[in-house]
Amino acid sequence: MIMQFLGRRAPRRWLAGGAGAVLVLAFAASVSAQVNRRDVPIVAQPQQRFNSGQDIQPIFEGWTRNEDGSYQFHYGYLNRNYRERPHVPVGRDNFFSPGEPDRGQPAYFYPRTNRYQFDVTVPADFPLDAELIWEVTRQGSTQRAYGWLQPEWEIDVNTITSNARTQFGRGVDELYSNIAPVVSVEASRDTVAVGTPVTLTARLTDDDLPTPVPERDDSLPRRRRDPTLVAPPGAPQIPDNIPSYTRPTPTRNHLSVLWVVYRGPADAEFEPYGYQEWEEGMDGDGWTSGTFETTVTFDEPGAYTLRAFACDAMLISHANIEITVTAAE
């Protein structure tokens, strides 16, 4: 499934052929030599890998049908930075239109591509030619994702698990019979001072699907290589205090839970980090039920929304919890 970045009604501009085209190209070359990189929109710059300083590209992933006739619009995003995690509060720089500007979108963005982060329900009578637009502005660059009921953008569980890489080789019978886990969350405190740990509890219930698959052999080489970040000539030095980031992936077997900062001014420290897989000794049986405890500690005060992504080793559900963090006493 190709990610949809740009609007579907982008105008086409054609250049005349022959000598006219040569003149246009020559003029463009003379102008480009006089343009400073900082004056060029981020998306128009040559392909470089940046640790920080780049913008956010919202993504419309596609739409699915609900049993009551309404629709789910699925959204994700591309944070073009490899390390920086921008905070873009919901408001003039992070909103939906038309209608209610807050549709549950994230306001804290982890590096690179993050798919199927949230859904927006639209009514059954949503016009076929209407659009629901998510707009994010950062570093002076405004990017949009256009959600609409284009027939080619209807997706299903096969598309979602393929793009999210959570099929783990299982067959279509399990894929279409499986039900996503139900998750409820709570925190030991809803107000806490900086540096004070909070216990997060996630309780999952699920059906008996999917079935186990062989574990991955970690001794085998991986195809993916980490990028080599090279700054272009004259670029500012990247601060060394920006933490590196490795995107967590769900486990192949058993229930698992991932906690992230969904909205808030800064990241937080979660223990354990990444997807926490059910293990012997924990509450539940690991397939149809499980209770997970995680601690979180904040370094900066502010209002935070934390999101738990709950996976049954194929499908992912989520639930939020809000915590207010005050300055250290």
The CATH architecture name of the domain at 168-211 and 244-326 reads Sandwich
**Terminal Cα span:** 50 Å
Strand arrangement across the biggest beta sheet: 8-15-14-10-12
Basic shape? globular
Order of helices and strands: HEEEEEEHHEEEEEEEEE
By secondary-structure content and strand pairing, the structural class works out as mainly beta
Strand content is: 25-35%
Report the radius of gyration as a whole number of Å: 22 Å
Count of DSSP E strands? 15
Report helical residue fraction. Answer: under 10%
List the helices and strands and how they pair.
Blueprint: H1 19-32, E1 56-65, E2 71-79, E3 94-97, E4 112-122, E5 132-138, E6 141-147, H2 157-164, H3 172-177, E7 182-187, E8 191-193, E9 198-205, E10 256-263, E11 268-271, E12 276-277, E13 289-298, E14 302-311, E15 316-326
Parallel strand pairs: 8-15
Antiparallel strand pairs: 1-2, 2-4, 3-5, 5-6, 7-9, 9-13, 10-12, 10-14, 11-13, 14-15
Keywords:
disordered N terminus, 15 strands, mainly beta, 4-stranded antiparallel beta sheet, 5-stranded mixed beta sheet, single chain, Immunoglobulin-like
Task: Describe the fold and architecture.
There is one protein chain. With 329 residues, the chain is mainly β. The N and C termini lie far apart (50 Å). The protein has a 5-stranded mixed sheet with strand order 8-15-14-10-12, with no helix packed on it. Strands 7-9-13-11 form a 4-stranded antiparallel sheet, with no helix packed on it. It has helices spanning 19-32, 157-164, 172-177, and strands at 56-65, 71-79, 94-97, 112-122, 132-138, 141-147, 182-187, 191-193, 198-205, 256-263, 268-271, 276-277, 289-298, 302-311, 316-326. The chain contains 3 helices and 15 strands. Helices cover 9% and strands 33% of the residues. Among the domains are: 56-153, no CATH class; 168-211 and 244-326, Immunoglobulin-like.
